[in-house]
Protein 1
Amino acid sequence: MAVKFQAPDAKDDRDRLHHFLDATHAFFDELIQEGKDGHGTALFVPDMAPLIQASWNDLAHQFQEVHRGVESEWGEKLDEAGLTGNQLALKLGVVERLHARYESMGGHNALERVLDAIGNLLDSIVKATRVGEALKEFKEAVKLSIAGAEE
């Protein structure tokens, strides 16, 4: 997956958040469509894959709601949630690093770690904007559907 969570050409933190949301959408879309990592390892419990796909089809459009939430709540609320400046840079850096590790190594554990990092940022966005709760819950359901997660 050629997804990049950090936007080197972003003008400001608002652009960085919008880029993160777009990258997260692309990451989930590719992850769910492929169902395998770059090394060919199946990622999800087989009977969960169709449910994940159906759920994704139902809620992928909610990213637009979150984009609007970022715009409407831009300022103090996002700053208080750690979604600006160095706090945002740190969170995006963690996501990018763990995603790169997942890309190079593949595997269930690496995927769980990148999903946790994405979830951390999504949680901050949801708290600040009060939209996107279903996306956060979807991320958690995907994580719990990773093959081997129940071991």
Protein 2
Amino acid sequence: MIRKEENSLFDLFFNGEELFHDSFNKKFKRNNVIPKINSFRNNDEFILNVYLPGYNKKDISIKADKTLIISGERKIDVPKDSSILMKEAFDETFERSFSLDDDIDLDNIDASFKDGVLTIKLKKLEAKKEKQIEIR
């Protein structure tokens, strides 16, 4: 099912301290994060739990083909007519991608979001049964 994760070294590098001017950071999405993921499997499906505290369902996108792509963006609002005294939380984006094997039923993927945890269930295709052909 999930063969390997495709994370960019570029993303990992820019997940650290402030390094460049803000316009550079905005252009290259400096505030990328890498959400924690736990994965499980049973006989019928693979299950991914993606931990996204502070995100809303509308902030998250899931696409699947030969690759499962989970992405999102969270904006931190500053109240109108306010000046910032301290800011430790920033706008952030993420993207995680996983290569999928051919035994995943792309038409039967289920996703739910509750309490900051995105759960994705990837059903396995039913094994093709050998069919007896009658000779006439």
Protein 3
Amino acid sequence: MTNFLIICLALISLSNAYAAEIQYKDVRQDLNGVDIPCLTIEGKIEYGDYRKLQNLINQNPELFAIAGAHIALDSNGGDFVEALKIGALIKSMPTWIMVQNKCASSCFFLYVAGAFRHTGLAGQLGVHRPFFDARYFRKLNTRQAEIQQKKLFHEASKYLEDSSVPNSLQEVVFNTPSTYVKWLNPDQTRLLGMMSPSFWELALARCQLKDVSEIKSQTEHTEWIIKLRDCSNKLMDDERQRVISEAIEASKRNKSSVAIELLSAR
């Protein structure tokens, strides 16, 4: 699993500082030597990126059904509301999430949305308390800004709770000023786990996998990884197809398929 993630991540270029690039890139999964596409999200997350992702789905739903299972991130964050919409889409289907270079600010909310998540050998996760893009706030008065900020914190807290982010890390997020990035150390990153708790339990139950503690050799570890990969891919198929269909229909109606308040006064 680790080798596959490293190879996927190695193919991502440095982040675009001005706008997120959402595209497919071919990668090699060295466990079986088969080339597969990986969906990459690079650069600053901006308003319209969720729509950009919807358009990518519309162009080739069949390709997204494959590539959407593996998402690699390289972003210093950006529009928090847009990140929540993209994250909710990711969270609605079992997905591999990988980090190349850095994933900070609102990008962190994409990372924790994955059923599988991995930072590779050099990936870094950075956090701070969420804040609105200026376009959401510039026309508000003091009272309106206070109300919207409380809504923002409520949505962020609920999102992290639903993503099974430990309370200790949630405290780090909300206690770090928005003007500063707190880079998580390896121990803090490990608290997030390689797999979301819900999908972990589902995989153990449905895939009939032995507990990791029972693995005694590298050969058994490799066999466990292959079985987990093959079985989880089957589990992912139905959910991905459902999400794709919903996203396409929502795009046709020019609405988000994500049930989330935009928290803005546009």
Protein 4
Amino acid sequence: MRVIASSIRKGNVIEQDGKLYVVVSAENIHPGKGTPVSQIEMRRISDGVKISERYKTTDQVEKATIEERNYTFLYEDGDGYHFMNPETYDQVQVSKDVIGDAVDGGIRLESLGRMHRKDAAAKKRP
């Protein structure tokens, strides 16, 4: 789904260059002279790389569809954290860079993307 850049908010997931990104911060800047822009900092879901992009507020951005699923934390090893879907018993490995500090306390793992995409990101439970 394409949306204008000024409507992007923290926590949204956008697709750029075939990769999924979680928005870390989004700020609309209206200079006294010139075109208003949206400054968006985001983290790539697949490897945790952080990037910053600047769009005109009227530019179109691809907002990803999110499918939520609950996963149970199993264990941690050198490769990252391992989770299991309690309904299907499928296991997923997520790198430490993607999860960050969310491991303290409960964790909800969200499968992100389109129907054919299998990228994952982690967030704290509300």
